Amino acid sequence: MARRKVREMRRKERTLSEQLRETRERIARAKIRLASLNRKYSLVSRQLARTRSRVMQLRAKLSRHRSILAERLRQLYKHPPSDYVAFVMDAPDIEDAAIRTYAFQRIISHDEFLIETTQQAKEELEGQEAKLRYQQSQLASLREAIVEQTIELRDAESEQANLLRRVQTERETYERWLQEWEEESREIAALLRQLQSAQRNRPRPIPPWTGPFIRPVNGHIVSGFGYRVHPIFRRVKFHYGVDISSPSGTPIRAAADGVVVFSGWRRAYGKTVIVDHGNGLATLYAHCSRLLVSEGEVVKQGQVIALVGSTGLSTGPHLHFEVRHYGEPINPLAVR
Ligand SMILES: [Zn+2]
User: Fold this and answer.
1) Distance (Å, rounded) from C-alpha 107 to C-alpha 87?
2) Residue 91 and residue 97: Cα distance in Å, rounded?
3) Is 283:242 a contact under the CB 8 Å cutoff?
4) How many Å lie between the centroid of ligand 1 and the Cα of residue 273?
5) Can you list the alpha helix ranges (DSSP code H) found in the chain?
6) CA-atom Rg of the chain in angstroms
7) CA of 254 to the centre of ligand 1 (A)
8) Rounded to the nearest whole angstrom, what is the distance from the C-alpha of residue 243 to the centroid of ligand 1?
């Protein structure tokens, strides 16, 4: 697989896992806010209940005081203070007059006290009623905030569920890719084993390979031969060759003299040429845009056999180059 593809997959995985982390944080934040809002809500509810019962008490007290006051006013109307003056003056002696005056003052001061406490109860009631209204509006806005946070929490949770489904889908796609590569590689190995064992009994059109391979295209090796571990899925895959980055249409040259044993389509590999070099060695050129040789053709080292492309499981133009020994992939860099 092209490193580019791997890079792209890794980038996608990183984005996905970042998004997942973000949604997890969103969920955590929403839950914390929701819990604190709920605590505040029940606190204010309790305060409101206390205020409400205080308001009820004060209303009862006030109505009691008002009826007492009303009664007192009625009595004063029936017996205006002049009656009291007469009452005091009618006293048989000065001591009795003093007692009567004192009692009269007591009555007056009791009235004053009654008026004062009634006034106080009224003021307290007004204060408590204002508090009640404030607490009610506090509860209303808390309820609103709770609804908002609940919606935010649900949104974050459904977004996370979507992301997890996407991760799952990509994992499955990746697994399918791996399977396709592995199956195709096994089929190629079987094909080469069969061909190369059959060859033993037949004369080769050209002598077997002895010298070094040439590099089929110029370019950087962007992915080497061997095991890779997927960063997120932790799945181990085997890369059967090396990837050489090269622009689309670049001529691909045969690494050595040989006979073309396959030229055609191979699922994950795309358009592919396989050249048998004898001595159990074969080279494979995958993801080509065009194939310029056909099966049975004898090719010379350096002869253009195909053009670089991006067919099969590849996202960018590059040459996937393999060397196989009796069908088994070996490291091309170790053969040269
Ligand atoms: Zn490759």
Assistant:
1) 14
2) 5
3) no
4) 14
5) 3-78, 81-89, 94-199, 332-335
6) 48
7) 17
8) 5
CA 258 to ligand 1 centroid distance, Å: 22
Residues 134 and 46: their CA atoms lie apart, in Å, by: 14
Instruction: Give the tens place of pLDDT for each residue, 170-218.
Output: 888 888 888 999 999 999 999 999 988 877 766 677 777 777 899 999 9
pLDDT of residue 105: 80
| CATH architecture assigned to 195-335 | Distorted Sandwich (2.70)
What are the extents of the domains in the chain? 3-171, 195-335
Nearest C-alpha neighbor of 120 from the set 183, 180, 65, 81: 65
At 309-332, the pLDDT tens digits run: 999 988 789 999 999 999 999 999
Q: Which fold has domain 3-171?
A: Helix Hairpins (1.10.287)
How far does residue 223's CA lie from ligand 1's centre (Å)?
7
Among 132, 128, 314, CA closest to 239: 314
Read off the pLDDT of residues 210-266 as tens digits, 9 standing for 90 and up: 778 999 999 999 889 999 876 667 778 889 999 999 999 999 999 999 999 999 999
